[in-house]
Amino acid sequence: xxxxxxxxxxxxxxxxxxxxxxxxxxxxxxxxxxxxxxxxxxxxxxxxxxxxxxxxxxxxxxxxxxxxxxxxxxxxxxxxxxxxxxxxxxxxxxxxxxxxxxxxxxxxxxxxxxxxxxxxxxxxxxxxxxxxxxxxxxxxxxxxxxxxxxxxxxxxxxxxxxxxxxxxxxxxxxxxxxxxxxxxxxxxxxxxxxxxxxxxxxxxxxxxxxxxxxxxxxxxxxxxxxxxxxxxxxxxxxxxxxxxxxxxxxxxxxxxxxxxxxxxxxxxxxxxxxxxxxxxxxxxxxxxxxxxxxxxxxxxxxxxxxxxxxxxxxxxxxxxxxxxxxxxxxxxxxxxxxxxxxxxxxxxxxxxxxxx
Length: 356
Prior knowledge:
alpha/beta, 7-stranded mixed beta sheet, 3-stranded mixed beta sheet, 13% strand, disordered N terminus, disordered C terminus
């Protein structure tokens, strides 16, 4: 499924030193350092590799996460968000967290079948399954692969609760099913909104839908009865933090019922990629951005500690939390989140009633 598109998030394709990746050379237009006549690098192909996973549910025991299980239909994400904390996961595949992450993707076409088998296991206890915790379940390739849609069909059939986080308006392609599940209190959706400025959004998230399309998705979901939240994540100092109140106002006007935010996180290889992106696009304020990030991350580029990683610490973090709370009250986004039902779950029937 090759596609030639010029915009990418990362400015380069660094190797990861953590896992001893072999140094690779340019191959055709992949990692090609040559430039065209206008000085721009040649476009990169987007490739999709089939991954035959053995299991599909990922479990976690993190105390600062609101879920204990998740499904990721894809690895890598073509949205190309420069800040994406999932980028380092590509290093496990001997690929770069840079351009590889956003152009060399993996799809799990067996995800729905694997999910069905998980739900059929004897003693399985239902709890909300989170989609979109690592890479976006509605990134562009979902239009062709429809793996997220197939998984939702299994959850709909079994009355299993699910939460979805996405920055794509492709989520409305499943609006009919989501609306039906919402009527049974089985689903909620969070739409990520980082900036209302199309130029900033395109730079931060080069292949994600424009802000007005995400607001339209919030409106469509809300009008269809789907509990819809807005995720202001990440908030980037000196780049997007001044928009916080405007983002919440716009989301509330579109019908969002609640909101949350996360200051930018820069784990592992994300930090050097982000700094290179700053130097390329915002050289006038790169120093200020990194200094402010250090002030809310206890003097470091990243704070991996539970709870503080999600909200930061120090005066800048406190000010951001105060602004957020005031704006949420002003725009009616301080409503309690819906509790999804688990009592309706019924395990799917297996072949001849077999339980795996």
